């Protein structure tokens, strides 16, 4: 029977520090290991990696889609963007610069690698094994102006920017939208069924599957799966979740909304990259982040939320809260061999 100790050891082994050898010898497995440490919706890890001598292609694994919360697969493609961003930083640590291109024919992302004597390990690369979503309350302290500017810069892309909200009035408005989102989602049987299918109630189940939302990361006690499934109806209530989220948002220094001028697959990938960069920058600054996407996931709420943000021609596609606070136990990943195809013939 796996214990929490074994769980934590497995999570830590996956996050062992990587090579910082910019000698031009490409270690593709190391690149993929770093890519898989990225965030993904419900920790579905909806990716496959095809590695070649000078390129890695990240392809969607549609068997891992979440049709209820993510009917257009936008979260899925954002998750691929998160993985691509990690890959770029890991490639730099090995002495390669990257060009990231969405290929609509393949429905995937090509990361083209070129030997670059100036490429090297950065603070964002070193943050990859430490980045995590921390869903606990933070300590309420503000973030310095310089750090806020660094976060905002990290969240920028050609068609992506972040809107930073930090006043009490703004937080209260966000709480209102998140509450309405929680009520819409947690009173929807299909949403609950899909969410519960990705919950991992004890270390044994979490380690067997290597994916999903482990109770350990949120500090929940380990329970036998059959018992947890009986109890979940009592524990996971719209009002309870709304209360927790309100407390957590109030405890945060601020909220960042990621907006894009487009709403298609290349834009979702770009936005995922921007979020991951933001989260790596936050990690490097010892700042925690956690998603609060309910007003974006609930379609009827999204347009109201976008009007409140006074967006014109832009789309709100992700939202996180950030602040100073504790760390949490880490989430798990599936083995690299489950997600990698090695193809040395240039294609
Ligand atoms: C596109 C996307 C959407 C996400 N949405 C949520 C969300 O609504 N609520 C939440 O708590 N976490 C959300 N997450 C975070 C994932 O659950 C998290 O990345 C995953 O469980 C792995 O954990 P880690 O990020 O700590 O490594 C999202 C992640 C991504 C990439």
How would you describe what is shown here?
- This protein folds into two domains: 4-132 and 333-342, putative nitroreductase (tm1586), domain 2 (NADH Oxidase); 145-198 and 237-323, NADH Oxidase (3-Layer(aba) Sandwich).
- The relative contact order is 0.19.
- The chain has 347 residues and is an alpha+beta fold.
- The protein has helices at residues 4-14, 28-36, 74-93, 123-127, 145-154, 168-186, 189-197, 203-209, 225-235, 238-250, 265-284, 294-297, 299-308; strands spanning 47-51, 55-60, 96-103, 108-115, 160-165, 199-200, 213-214, 254-260, 288-291, 315-323, 340-342.
- Helix content is 43%, strand content 17%.
- The termini are far apart.
- The longest helix is centred in the N-terminal third of the chain and has 20 residues, at 74-93.
- The mean pLDDT is 95.
- Bound molecules: flavin mononucleotide (FMN).
List the helices and strands and how they pair.
Layout: H1 4-14, H2 28-36, E1 47-51, E2 55-60, H3 74-93, E3 96-103, E4 108-115, H4 123-127, H5 145-154, E5 160-165, H6 168-186, H7 189-197, E6 199-200, H8 203-209, E7 213-214, H9 225-235, H10 238-250, E8 254-260, H11 265-284, E9 288-291, H12 294-297, H13 299-308, E10 315-323, E11 340-342
Flavin mononucleotide is lined by residues 39-43, 75, 78-79, 82, 132-133, 135, 213, 290-291, 293, 331.
